[in-house]
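We both want to read discrete structure tokens more fluently, so let's practise on a single case. Once you have written the record down, we can walk along the chain together.
***
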Amino acid sequence: MMHGLIQAFAALFSAAATVAACGAAGSLLIRWCGAKLSRMERAPLAFLSGAACLHLAIFAILAARIAYKPVWLILIAGTIAAALWRKAASDPSRPIERHWTAYLFGAIFAVYAIFYFVNAWVPEASADGAGYHLEIVARYLRAHGFERIPDNMYAGLGQGIELLFAPAFAFGRHSAAALVHFAFLIALGWAIFAFGARIGKPWCGAAAALLVFLSPVVGRDATSAYVDVGTAAIVFAVFYWLEIWDAQRDARLLLPAGLLAGYAYAAKYTAAIILVYALAFVAWRARRIRPLIVVTAAAALMAIPWVLKDWIYYQNPVMPFADEVFPNAYVHPIVEEQWVESLRHYELPSFRQLPWQVTVRGDYTEGILGPIFLLTPLALLAWRRPVGRRLLLAGFTLLAVYFGNIGTRFLIPCLPFFSLALALAIENRALLAILAAAHAVLSWPAMIPRYGNPYVWRVEKFPIAAALRLEPEDVYLRRNIGDYDRIVMINQNTPPGEPVLATGDLSSTSYVSHPVIDHFRSAEGNTDWDIINTGWAAVSQPTRQYVFRFPAQPVTRIRLLLTAGSSSIGKDQQWSVHELRFFDHGAELARDRGWRLRAWPNPFEVQLAFDNSPATRWRTWQAAAPGMYVEVDFGRPESIDEVRMEGADDDHWDGIGMAVARWDQGRWSTLADRFEEQRLAQIRWIRRAATFELRRRGIHYVIVGDRDFGANDYYADPAEWGLEVVARVPGATLLRIVP
């Protein structure tokens, strides 16, 4: 029990220290800017502005690969000490008129704040929080700095908020990170309330703060190691600083606005659109170029390091997107396209259902804002006020990027603006109090199943025993993470540092002390999954051969290319080549290390078409289109009269056009555009060939879920695969590839 309490308070104190360091860094920035802030608005703006600055310092530490515990202690303690030494005074806050609504708002806030705090303090078990958000943090900490993570495309996303998790995670582990994110919710609610006081309507600020704070999806997101609530707080702070600058007209105040706008990009790519609002607002109000330069330069200071990191590690400045524009070996374009397309729809039958889904039901969009947000159109009435117009313009600017991912939580950055606009539109204290009270009742976890999806993503319980670790952490995690037993099995039975290939999905990978390669998150995983599937899936095996014949002639460079094909080629249909072979009077040209191989697209895996393995294949990993090719430069003339391409059934189309061409006097000339198609016998030892290739790629362990594709085949005869059972838990088996 004592060990559990120590764990709990280590998480709490490490999170508190990180939050304090953010506030300290922000206080130093505010002092330098000379901002005239009330006590009420100083705290949230200091935390949010300081988070941007501290994140940049953490970035430098990781880039220098000196991320050790003493360095974190120096950073945190030094920042706090510097702020205490240079403490600045606040302008006095205007007294808030006491009214019965203030006590109601305060009581509601207190109840939910305690409820959320306990849920943030428990061992982290959320899907993405315990998954890739903290997995990436954990891997950076193990490496003591940034490293290329080729098996997880999410490592290319901006990690502006995750970097703040790093020092907290180093001492307090997973729940410390969730508590840091929870601090962003407190800062957001506080800032919304303070903004209401700034415009002389604190009751509107209080009501708007509660509308955001109580929203079920906000509460669940904020109590997990996610980044959406943090992003909402950052973009609202950009808006807030612009309002302060507009009132005080001190050019220095544009610095925190610009820094936070760039930090928004670091937190989430889509949030960078707040920079568009910031530049438009400054251009409109200042009518000079210099303020625009200040905002742009400050934003660039925050954003450019992330662009450079992705370019250096992944050859794509906006990893994992735009992979056709920036070809790289880490993300296959067709997987990106399918992923992005799925985010736009979530299998929602009709977009007309979207407002109802994101506010009330949550059947498809993974969370709800709460039924009160059906009143959001009334926020348009705030247009009659100048501040209302600015709030609405900022809200609609952020809403413009929402339809790239229609999950409910991706609306969170818009909520502060529309909630304040709605409160200003209603304005009446009694009506706002009724609205807040109704929202509190409807958002209470026990109420949600009465009108929404009973399984909707939300905070459900008050797990104080788990928070204090009176309930052991592994007991809580085993109950809340469906495949936690698999994680424990991997950690206990796999040598340190060994990657593990998962034939299905494995959640909460931050608890796995090994790289986990799955079928979705990387080009490496796509290809590894394709290789192992070839062992059992006949449609993926090389059972077709396409033979091109032509008069014997000397050839130095030769190309197999896709020509105008059949209309049956689907938008997701690829072209693949298991093996490409060249013959002269029936004798195959022996492969030579001097051959220079090229392909378009996917030049990174062209060797798979020349490795003599039936388990591997080069694939376009883009929709097949005329002009795609595989090319060989022999380095010297070779006599050739026949080309054979081996392919699989799953990439075969009737009527497809392929041709063989040679490089001749500065241009490509066709050698043959007709082929004979032949059937090849299935290879009996292809299962062993598949695991041999995986082992050659550095994979020695495979975890197979009982319901994964091919599971019955792996289990039926592991020896035929060259596998041996290492360990077994209900529902899954850990296998080792024998040498």
About this structure: The first strand starts at residue 500 and ends at 502. The chain is about 50% helix and 15% strand. Residues 10-27+35-450 form one domain.
